[in-house]
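> example.struct
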């Protein structure tokens, strides 16, 4: 059913209820049917405003506005209920008077809700009223308190007898507070309508923007004529409570119709006209609404699984309130893209393996090159010692045992030097400083080798700190130099090493003054060569 046709049917239904209720009023006016027409009229009006409240729940989008309209509808229902009790049920004058006073609960607070609705329009869902807006509710609260306590002060109504209810409640006069209430109601209505007109988001709706303003003016005119006692108005439209409820409902319905208040009217047509292939189904999976682009073969997938059709259309579903939303999208190009991605992934993995193999081969090549570089460097560094060892081994072939023994001693010392020198080379490449233990291991091995060669040798360590690796190499080179110069004439060697210096006491016939330099001090005392060199230690590291 088209939206305009549906709205027409709803309007016919509403006016049918109003006409039926008005007919009941006429029947009661002519005393036809007893009290039954009045009861039917009250039931029809209550039904009408209950249905209006339900329709607001289904249409209004903005929650704060919806809450205000709900409360407004509740106040209207209270107003109509009080009216029915007062005229159709209650007979006691005191109770009837207080029911009349209670009329002013909706009369005073419905305009306040209209002000709040006007403030909320154009705001976000999370917008909260300011403290000043909340303080505005104190005015109707104070006015209603004045009305409900009128019997004590009679500043709203004053009765002809001076005593409420004596002899009845019908003859009364308005007092100042009553006119304050009128100003409050008229001011709130005018403020609400002006704000609604200012905040409308659709300037193109033209004359329809004036509809709420026209209805408000008619309502105010009706109120003035009713208070002035125009008999025609009182006779034809004498049910003032119902008339004001209908006017308020008409004002806000016109605001919804003019799109001043946002509603979801027309969503069905919008959904049907969308280019997205989609459907809405109930909880059993039965299709309730289908867009024009959705094919008849689109069904609700079971258990949330997607259905992929041979033509590349994928049908998916997701749960919503009281059912499911179903949509279809063409995934053929995505499937082709996925296939290409899988192929590219396979090629990538294959290339990755090849690159990894090439990297490992390159790594091995670099390691081999670096090893060869280190071997070449060590070979160049110990070339002289290596050639000397070869020469001594050649001489040992035909040498006699005493001579062979001397040659083997020298080979032992040269081999010890090559071993510890290579070890210090590797350590110096990795560490800038060497612990005391490395120095001791180096010198101790040299001492053991010399003792094996029947040379009296000893060492004393007074070190407490790490020593720079370059300094350890220099000290070991100094010992190697002394060993080479005195290898056949060395009788004893004593070494003392501390954090600051290394002292050597050498007993030999060789002249060691040649090794003196800026770093090495040499002197001879009591047949011993005393050699001293400073150690840089941590400071030189």
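> example.seq
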């Amino acid at each position: 059913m088209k939206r305009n046709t549906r709205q027409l049917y709803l309007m016919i239904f509403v006016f049918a209820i109003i006409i039926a209720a008005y007919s009941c009023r006429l029947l009661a006016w002519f005393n036809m049917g007893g009290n039954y027409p009045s009861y039917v009229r009250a039931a029809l009006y209550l039904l009408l405003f209950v249905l209006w409240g339900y329709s607001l729940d289904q249409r209004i989008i903005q929650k704060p506005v919806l809450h205000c309209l709900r409360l407004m509808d509740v106040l209207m229902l209270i107003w109509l209920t009080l009216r029915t009790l007062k005229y159709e049920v209650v007979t006691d004058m005191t109770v009837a008077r207080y029911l009349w006073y209670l009329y002013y609960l909706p009369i005073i607070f419905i305009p306040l809700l209209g002000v709040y609705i006007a403030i909320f329009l154009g705001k976000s869902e999370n917008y909260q009223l300011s403290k000043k807006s909340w303080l505005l509710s104190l005015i109707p609260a104070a006015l209603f308190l004045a009305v409900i306590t009128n019997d004590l002060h009679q500043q709203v109504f004053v009765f002809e007898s001076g005593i409420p209810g004596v002899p009845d409640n019908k003859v009364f006069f308005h007092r100042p507070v009553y006119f304050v209430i009128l100003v409050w109601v008229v001011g709130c209505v005018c403020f609400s309508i002006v704000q609604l007109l200012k905040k409308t988001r659709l300037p193109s709706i033209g004359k329809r923007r004036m509809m709420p303003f026209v209805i408000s003016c008619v309502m105010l005119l009706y109120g003035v004529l009713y208070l002035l006692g125009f008999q025609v108005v009182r006779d034809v439209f004498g049910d003032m409570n119902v008339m004001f409820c209908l006017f308020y409902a008409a004002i806000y319905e016109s605001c919804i119709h003019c799109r001043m208040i946002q509603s979801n009217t027309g969503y069905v047509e919008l959904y049907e006209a969308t280019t997205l292939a989609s459907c809405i189904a109930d909880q059993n999976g039965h299709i309730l609404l289908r867009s024009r682009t959705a094919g008849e073969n689109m069904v609700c997938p079971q258990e949330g699984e997607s259905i992929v059709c041979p033509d590349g259309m994928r049908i998916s579903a997701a749960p919503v309130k009281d059912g499911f939303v179903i949509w279809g999208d063409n995934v053929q190009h995505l499937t082709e893209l996925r296939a290409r991605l899988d192929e590219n992934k396979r090629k990538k993995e294959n290339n990755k393996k090849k690159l990894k193999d090439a990297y490992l081969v390159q790594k091995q090549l670099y390691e081999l090159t670096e090893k060869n570089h280190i071997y070449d460097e060590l070979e160049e560094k110990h070339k002289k010692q290596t050639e000397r060892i070869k020469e001594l081994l050649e001489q040992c072939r035909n040498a006699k045992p005493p001579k062979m023994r001397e040659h083997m001693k020298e080979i032992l010392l040269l081999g010890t030097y090559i071993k510890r020198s290579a070890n210090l080379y590797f350590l110096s490449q990795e560490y800038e400083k060497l612990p005391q233990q490395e120095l001791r291991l180096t010198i101790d091995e040299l001492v053991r080798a010399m003792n094996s060669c029947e040379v009296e040798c000893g060492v004393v360590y007074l070190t407490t700190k790490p020593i720079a690796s370059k300094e350890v190499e220099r000290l070991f080179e100094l010992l190697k130099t002394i060993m080479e110069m005195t290898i056949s004439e060395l009788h004893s060697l004593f070494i003392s090493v501390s954090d600051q210096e290394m002292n050597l006491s050498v007993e030999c016939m060789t002249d060691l003054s040649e090794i003196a330099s800026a770093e090495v001090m040499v002197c001879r005392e009591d047949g011993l060569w005393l050699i001293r060199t400073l150690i840089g230690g941590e400071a030189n590291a």
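> remarks
The chain has a mean pLDDT of 84.
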